[in-house]
Amino acid sequence: MLDSLAVDRGFLAENDAQILDLEIQIVALEQSISALRAARQPVQERLDSYKYPVLTLPNEIITEIFVHFLPTYPQPPPLVGTLSPTCLTQICSTWRAIALATPRLWRAIDLTDQSDEQPGMEATLALARLWSARSGSYPLSIDLADDYDEHYILPIVLPHRDRLEHLTFNLDGTELLSIIQGSFPLLRNLSIRFSCGVSGAETVTLQNLPLLRTAVLDDWLDPHAMLPWSQLTSLTLRFLTTVHCREILRQASHLIRCNLYFAGDMIPNEQNQDQDLHIELLRLETLTFEPQSRCDGDFFRCLVTPALLSLQLSEPSLGLANESDSFVVDSLASFISKSGCQLRELKVTNTHVNENVYREAFPSIPIISVDEERS
């Protein structure tokens, strides 16, 4: 009996020793595993950074990358698609948070895209309202050049008129005049196309635009319409008569750039009116007559532009079509001499006069480009 008890006690003592030894080994293994995991972590972090290096950039840098991914403001990106800021919100949660927290991404809104990706009208206008909300307090650029009626335009434009910096839209009749006849304290660039002609009973008056410097006006039919012409430094007038153009340019005395497209000759009853009027544009540096426009020669002869550096014209746009070479050249020479300008660039389109004739007549002009009329 005593011998059996001693054997059992010996077995337990040996077993306890083995268990203790294994426990010591387990602790050592756990410590080794912990050490290996600790050594692995920085290596894994380095590998992750190699795989996704952009995630290691500060948010401020990512924000600037996002801004440069889009067209330069005020040119708008598409509302949807791979080139839209919306796609930046669909990459990962980090990028989504950064994009939604960057008002500059959402401040230029284009409602003219006709691509297959563009949603329907209701969805498009909903996106416009969403973008304007995301833009925070930043100045806005809105292009509404498509034919949206008052029901759609007013909720987009009017709530943000104090932030609008660039605005383009169609004016289809007089019912939308309330959009543009209030105050726009930040508006710098205004482009309007008069789809159905706004003239007659109601005169367009746009005077509460203290920062307006650029205007583009298509089908501006009312000669009595009022803009702060004297503020403008850049003006484009399309599809108007020379009579209306004269009246406007008389007031736009601070223009630096001017682009003109004449709808046709003068109104017959007014053809001889103010023929001796000189239009002095003392700061004008760039003057462009669009190639297909036509006017009478008197309009060109009444201009005085002493600071002019660049002139682009066509013979029909100045009433010089079908004239002799010498008459065309003499007309240009008379204009340059009368203005006292030092032209650096002359571009003549739709002309029957050879380029060498222009170069011989105007040797002091460094850049002369001629697009001869094709028979």
Q: Overview of this structure, please?
A:
- The protein is an alpha/beta fold.
- It has helices at 2-51, 59-69, 93-100, 121-134, 150-157, 177-180, 242-251, 297-301, 325-339, 355-361, and strands spanning 108-110, 140-144, 164-171, 189-194, 214-218, 234-240, 257-262, 279-280, 286-289, 303-304, 310-314, 345-351, 367-372.
- Strand 12 (345-351), helix 10 and strand 13 (367-372) form a beta-alpha-beta unit.
- The N and C termini lie far apart (133 Å).
- The model is unreliable at 197-201 and 266-275 (pLDDT under 50).
Largest sheet: 11 strands, parallel
The helix content is 25-40%
How is the largest sheet built, in terms of strand order? 1-2-3-4-5-6-7-9-11-12-13
CATH class of the domain at 228-375: Alpha Beta
CATH topology of the domain at 228-375: Leucine-rich repeat, LRR (right-handed beta-alpha superhelix)
Question: Kindly state the mean pLDDT as a whole number?
Answer: 82
State the end-to-end CA separation: 133 Å
Radius of gyration: 36 Å
Number of strands: 13
Helical segment tally? 10
Taken in chain order, the helices and strands follow as HHHEHEHEHEEEHEEEHEEHEHE
How would you describe the oligomerization state of the chains in this entry?
single chain
Low-confidence stretches: 197-201, 266-275
Q: Structural class, judged by helices and strands?
A: alpha/beta
Report strand %. Answer: 15-25%
CATH architecture of the domain at 228-375: Alpha-Beta Horseshoe
Shape category: elongated
Protein name: F-box domain-containing protein
Keywords: Coiled coil
Coiled coil: 12-39
